[in-house]
Each structure stands twice: as structure tokens, then as C-alpha cells.
Amino acid sequence: MLRLLATLAAASAQNAKLVIVAQFKNEAESLPQWLDHYLTDEGVAAMLLVDDNSTDSWRQAVEPYGARVRVRSGHAHRQVENYNLWLPTLRSEYSDDWVLIVDVDEYAYARRDTLADAVRAILDPGPADSVLVAWKQFGSAGHRRQPKNGTVCGFTTRRRYGGRPYNPPLRGFGLGVGKAFARIRALESLGVHRHRMRNQPMLPVRDRNQTEASLASAAFALNHYPMQSRDWFQRTKMRRGDARSKRGGRGKRTLHHHRAFNKMALHWKTKEGLVRGYACRGTAGFAHVSCLAEQAKILLAEAEENNLDDERMVTRWRRWYACSLCEQKYHGVVRCALGWACWKTYLGRPETDRARIFAISQLGNGLSEANQHEDALSVKETELAILRRVGASEERMLDAQGNIANSYHRLGRLEETLRMRQEVYSGYLELKGGEDEGTLWAAFNYALNLKGLHRFEEVKPLLRRTLPVMRRVLGENDRITLKMRWIYAVALCLDTSATFDDLREAMTMLEETERIARRVFGGAHPLTVKMESDLRAARAALARETP
């Protein structure tokens, strides 16, 4: 009996769904991209919406989604009451699932998987019935009119969390916790920022001890875009009134408040907003290099001044090569420009200084990203020589050898590449074990080289052995996992002994991988573009082999 109950509980966790409840008023222009984010990109099962007496064309916006979007009429200025209109439906149709309350200007996402997958993998098996998710407050990014590339890509400035408790300059728009997931079967009533749960005390509205480091490690995040462009703010929020009461929100419906909020969204020292790199979520990405470099310098200087521990120091170092918003690495000319900026910043330090060693590594990687491979190889060989002179760790030297192998590969020196990558993979495997991220990267590079030399009988066993580990340790949406699946699929296609079933497996894997890459990195990312090309080739090959 106990075994049966455990089996049923496990099955329930695998099938748990996420439902969104929200209220809107005259937001027809914002609804399509918002609905698409949750229903298409994040795998949400249903959107239960309340119309607060809208007078625009909202029906046309929700119609394409059919039964997955349900709308009912609500009462003016009764936000909490309107949410709870859906409570009977939640209990009768979604009792084993989870609910999240969001506004139309809020975009929730999970750090690795889709929102729905993360709910099944993280929240549902866990002991908590209600889980708080942190807000990230975004300003207008200087836009007077709504940007054509959408809310997520268009508005990119936000205020950073500090290293100490944060006192918001604008009441009601602090940082900290924004909304909360709730397990529906334990739910008593819905609220705006928190919910009343059975046998559980009311949760605090905000955690004022939130920091950038804790935000970066959180499994879930919530981008909040309350201001958007000046024109949008004037024609929507300044006209429609507050959602909760007739008197509420008066001070938040003025252009003065719009200006004050945008001032808050700037970094306190640089007076610049945080900007997206090329890998950010959405259909377009961009970066302002001088802003990125200046902020990286300031953050690292603060870390050194405060003598932060290694873990927090690594978070600061990442700002030289990875976006603080989407956490993906920069690429192309942005990565190269930041590499030069990093090297110029720390060039004057002693050879043994770790900032200088880090900087030469970033310069080499940046040159590679800009396809300046001869220069990159020279820089990387210099770096390895420095590491040997200063007595660096075995892991650090393996990392440098791997970077040299990458340059060999891009210069077409494939046999040298293979020899060095095999050494690096063996070294990591012995030093760190099979589940370490460094070992997995080394396995990926080794597999890439074997595929390039058409040594399919060697690469396929390596991939079959490594892929399950990557998916378990790194997650389905991780860049290295996606690349490894892509290599495996392409290896199946290129193998002259491939069967029809092999080609069909390859095409299915490429379709899944390309879809995930497009959602995570965007359509313009080089990885997505390459996968699209290989997918077309796989389809053509399969068509030729189809009986």
C-alpha cells in the first residue's frame, strides 16, 4: 500500500502543472507577448484572467490561445477579490497543481528549465506549499515610445540589489520578494504578493536582505516592468486608476513618479542602467560596452576593497564575460571589446596578481570570439607560460590548455587539437571526476574534435555515456547540454553507416534542441543559427532516405 501511494505521488509530481491568475485593464497591446511568454515559452497550462472593465480590443489578443486562456469580468478596485473569483475553478480543476499570481507587466522565468518544468522538478517534490520569487525592477531604458522589439528586450535598465539591506527610495517599489507560487490543494485564499495557506503562517511581503548573489543563484526570478515607455505610462497607468482602491496609487500615476523610478533604476555609482548582452532572453539582444566595462571594474574594485571571499569574488569576475540579467556569456565583438578593456584595466599589476592572470585569459577568449585566432593563440600560449612560472594549480593549467586547443581547432590544426583535448579530458576526469562541469566541458570539446575528424565510432559511445550526466547535472537548457545533443545528432547524420532510424532520431533531437536554443538564446545567437542550418540538412537527408 505504501509503495502504491509513493508511486501515485511520484506520478502526480511528474504531471503537476502551473496555472497563472492575473487581472488586466485596457492592456490589449501588452497581452500578446505576455501570453506568448507564459503559454508558448514557459509551458504554462492555463491562464485564468479577470477583466477589470476594459474598453479596448483585448478579446482579439486572447482569441488565438483558445481554451488555454479563460477570462471573466471583475469588479473595479477589488484586485484581491477578483483573483479569488477563480478559486473554485482552481480547486475543482487544478487541485494537484500550482498557481502564480502575476500582472501583465511581470515576466516570471526559471533559471534553467521552462517555468512549468521547474515547478515539476523543484517545487512539487519539495516540502513547501508556498514559495516566494524575487522581483527585478526595470525602468524605461530612456524610451519615450514602446520599443518595437518588445517589453523584455526593449526595457533593460534596473536597480541592482546591494550587499546590505535595501531601503527603497520609492515606497512600494523596493527590491526583494515580488510574488509567490502556491500549491493549490493547500491554498485558503489568493493574495497579491503572498497567499493564505492552510496551517502555514502568512509570509513576509519582501526580503530586504536580497543581494545580487542570492538573486543569481535563485531557481526562479520575476522581471517587473511597471514603468515602460513614457507614452505607454501616460495612456495606461495614468488613466486607468489603481487596481485595489479608488484612492490608492495616486502618487504612482504621475510623470514625476515615472522619472523618479527611472532614476532609481540606474546604478548608484555609474549612473548607467544595466543592459542586455547578445545572449539575453527574447528575440534581440544588445550591449553597451563602455557601460559593461565600467560596471565590471567598479564591482571588482568594491570586492577587492571589502576582501570578499572567493565565491562572491567569482560572481564579480563574471561581469567581464557574462550578462548579469540572463547569465549567458557574451559573444562576438562584445566579448572581444570587453576582453581588451579587461586587459587594459589590470595590465599594470604584477605577473602573479590573479586579476592580471584573469585579464589575459579574457583577452584570449575575446579574440577567439572575434575570429582573430592567430592573435588568440599567441595570447593563450603566453598565459600558459605565465601559469607555469607562477606555479598555478593543475586545474587552472588544464583550463589554459583547453583554450589553446580551441585555437588549434579554429586554425584547422585538428590532429594537434585532438591530442591536447584528449589530454585535457583525461586530466579533468582524473582530477575532478565525471560529473564536474570542467570535465563535462572537456568531454564536449573532445567529442567536437572526434566528430570533425569523422571518427564516429569513437564519438558516439562518448556522447551516449556523457549526455545523461550533462542533462542531470546541468539541466536541459544549459548551453553545453544543448551543444552536446547537437553534436550527437550531427554525428548520426554524417555517419555513412547511419540507418533511416538514426536519421529520424537525429532530426527529432535537432528539432528539440533548436527549439530550446531559440527560446533560451534567441534566434540571432550563432548556436541557434547553426542548429537551424543543420536541421535543414537533416530534413533533406531524411527525405532522401524515406522509402
TrEMBL record:
It is a single-pass membrane protein. One of its GO terms (cellular component) is membrane. Pfam families: Glyco_tranf_2_4, TPR_12. It is found in: Membrane. GO terms for molecular function: glycosyltransferase activity. It comes from the Eukaryota. Its main location: membrane. Gene3D superfamilies: Spore Coat Polysaccharide Biosynthesis Protein SpsA, Chain A, Tetratricopeptide repeat domain. Keywords: Membrane, Transmembrane, Transmembrane helix. This is Uncharacterized protein. It comes from Pelagomonas calceolata.
